[in-house]
Amino acid sequence: MALATRTDKRTDKRPSLPRTLWDSTVGKKTIMAVSGLIMLSYLVVHMMGNLKIFFGAGQFDSYAHWLRTIGEPFLHYEWALWLIRVVLVAAVVGHAVAAYQLSRRDIRARPSRYVHRRARSSYATRTMRWGGIILALFIVWHILDLTTGTVHAGFRPGHPYQNVVDTFSTWYGNTIYIVAMAALALHVQHGFWSAAQTLGVGNATRDRVLKALANVLAVLLFAGFVSVPVAVMTGVVS
Questions:
Q1: What are the tens digits of pLDDT across the range 99-110?
Q2: CB contact burial 32-51 (16+ within 10 A = b; e otherwise)
Q3: CA 167 and chain centroid, separation
Q4: Rounded to two decimals, what is the model's pTM?
Q5: How far is CA 111 from the centre of its chain?
Q6: 183: how many CB neighbours lie within 10 A of its CB?
Q7: How far apart are CA 1 and CA 5, in angstroms?
Q8: In angstroms, rounded to a whole number, what is the distance separating the alpha carbons of residues 158 and 187?
Q9: CA distance 169 to 235
Q10: Alpha-carbon span 73 to 91, nearest angstrom
Q11: Per-residue pLDDT tens over the stretch 118-141
């Protein structure tokens, strides 16, 4: 009788719902879609904040300081900023891990490469993996350059305007940034439409609208982010 009870307990042990969702292909795609939209929302806000550099050092530095005082006096200094960072890190890690695991599943399911690529496959679709790697490396460099100043010679804490100008006064700073923003644009172009399909927003009627919106978002993000290094290079911002 005791043996039967122990057997029943082992039989009744089932994986939790979160684990079941994570292990499923649909669950991983949903995590990628939701985390991607979180990062996209941040990118839009971040780009708009970057454009304040065109209003001068005072405006840009004040904006950077405001980011650290959001929620005061209810929240302490930088608490809101750290909450945003934690959410972003969780989104990036979840997105990357799900993408890697889905990629491995795809390779196992199709061990031999296609002889002919599908005609409808876009350039952005074919470069999503490389684009993700480029963006991951860029995030690390961007943090070390303009947040911690580790790889930024002459970094001045509390002077974000001057630090940005210094970075984009170098050929390598501009090259890294522009290449990364090109990869970002391609990633958004395909990722936004793909997320809509995963979350059930897309259909035959909305497909053209969603793809057009994805193209517009990609172009606006690329133009908005790249306008800053271009302005520094041309002397508009100095």
A1: 888 878 777 776
A2: bbbbbbbbbeebeeebeebe
A3: 21
A4: 0.84
A5: 29
A6: 22
A7: 6
A8: 32
A9: 10
A10: 28
A11: 444 445 556 777 888 899 999 999
